[in-house]
Each structure stands twice: as C-alpha cells, then as structure tokens.
Amino acid sequence: MSLHDEFIQFGRKCVREGLVDSFFGNISVLKGDMVYITATGTIMDMLSRDDIVEINLHSPSEYDCYASSELLVHREIYTKSNFKSVLHAHSLYTVIFAEMYEKFCFAETEILPFLENVRIVEGRSGSGKLAETVGAAAEFSSLVVVKNHGVFSCGLNLKDAYIKLSALEHVCKKEIMKKMIIDEK
After folding, report:
1. Is the Cβ–Cβ distance between 42 and 23 less than 8 Å?
2. Rounded Cα gap, residues 92 and 102, in angstroms
3. How many domains in the chain?
4. pTM of this structure
5. What secondary structure does DSSP assign to 74-132, as a single string?
6. Which helix (H) or strand (E) holds 145?
7. Which positions ≥6 away from 76 have C-beta within 8 Å?
8. Under a CB-based contact definition with an 8 Å cutoff, are residues 152 and 73 in contact?
9. Which candidate, 7, 45, 51, 120, has a CA 20 to 30 Å from the CA of 15?
10. CATH number at residue 11
11. Could you read off the pLDDT tens digit of each residue along the chain, which spans 185 residues?
C-alpha cells in the first residue's frame, strides 16, 4: 500500500471510529528527513493525494504554511523520539478524561502496556511551547494528551499509532461511562 493510500485509510478509520470529527485532526509520517503531513484544513475522511504536504524535518520552507497547523509539534516529536508516524485527534472521551483526572490510571485488569504511561500536558494549539512540551513528553510516552485539545498518538507506523489512539479512547469511554453509572446510583 502506498503512503498516500495509508493516509486515506487511517483518516477514514479515525472519522468512522469517532476519534476525530472530519476536519479536526492530522496525520504525519517520517521518511528519512522528510515529513509527509496532512495539509491545513483537510477533511480526514475525504483525503486525497493533494492533501499531503512534503516538508523537510530540519529546514523550514515556504511550503510549511500549507501543512497542518500542528506541524511544529510533529517536527518536535520526530526530533526528540524514534517514532515514525503521528496521528493527532480530538478524541472526545480522552479529552474529557484528561480534564477529570490529574493522570491516566485505569482499573483494567489486563491493560495494554502503552496505556500505562500516558502523559497529560497543557499548551496552546500550534504553538512553539506546545511543540516543546509534547516533544519532551514523547521521549517517554507514545501517547500525549493535551488538555482541552486532543491526543498525539505516536508509533512506528500509522497502524501502530492508530491502535494506540483507538485503545486509549476505548478505555477512556469505558471509564467515563462507568463513572456516570456509579454516580447515578
């Protein structure tokens, strides 16, 4: 499968699963020194080849303005870690969970190892400060949640990043629903 086809596939999967609302989120993959990232304003379940921008990891260029507004964060993740792909989503239950609790601590008996070290950070979307904060957190965790914003799920490939993002949202939804039921009693 081509890189463009992977972007299209995982963009659709993220919308279908409710991890993003069509145009809230972005995707990137690192190949050598090149970052392939969704363009600003793209609709995740209607991606085409024209919606993917090729950007140099280390050298800003005139094409940066066409890339997602979170380009700085993606660059910093790749600079500070060994990850090769990033899915950024505004996953509802994960964002709510991060507002309700200081840290992610799940009651699951068989929790997936990558869910044991989810980081919560704060910062303004698209800012250099947020890029630094998320990049630093990605040195220690493949899942970084920005309060009141969304999740950066990092992986060795898009499938890896997607699985982590999906699993985190599933567990957060389950925990919030469980809390709602208990609080009603």
Report:
1. yes
2. 17
3. 1
4. 0.93
5. HHHHHHHSS--EEEEE--HHHHHHHHH-SS-----SS--GGGTT-EEE---TT-HHHHH
6. strand 143-146
7. 131, 132, 134, 135, 138
8. yes
9. 120
10. 3.40.225.10
11. 899 999 999 999 999 999 998 778 999 999 999 999 999 999 999 999 999 999 999 999 999 999 999 999 999 999 999 999 999 999 999 999 999 888 887 766 456 788 888 999 999 998 999 999 999 999 999 999 999 999 999 999 999 999 999 999 999 998 888 878 777 66
Residue 48: which domain range?
Answer: 3-184
Which token pair is 91?
Answer: 């996953």
Burial 40-72 (b: 16+ CB within 10 A, else e): bebebbebeeebbbebeeeeeeeebebbbebbb
Number of residues written out for the chain: 185
Residue in this structure with the two tokens 């991606």, named with its chain if needed: 47
